[in-house]
Amino acid sequence: MGKFCGYLLGEEWLFQRGIELGYPCPKTRDDEMQIFCLASRDVRTETGVYTYTKLRRVKTLQGKRYWCIAFAATDPYEHLPTTAPPEEKYIALKEALKKDGPPRWFRGI
Predict the structure, then answer these.
(1) What is the mean pLDDT of residues 69-97?
(2) pTM for this one?
(3) Which residues, in sequence order, are CB contacts of 63 under 8 Å at separation 6+?
């Protein structure tokens, strides 16, 4: 697996976003995955980054696993740029997620 440049999302944040959107509480792991994808798609569409980002699983240097809205990747098969995006590409998502600073690089899993 390569590395991804993006913003981290915890499962709790994705669940909360799904509830706000009116999705029912998940009963199975498949239901959870559906909510994660729908909640991610919603925030990516709302902030205008949907067409040039992907939702990927990553882990931090401390070994914690998160979801990541990725703008770039080191693996060319991801069909994402290989360099971090300019500020105008990520500013709306950064503000919606209440993140500090530009997207960071994380190891994919």
Answers:
(1) 95
(2) 0.91
(3) none
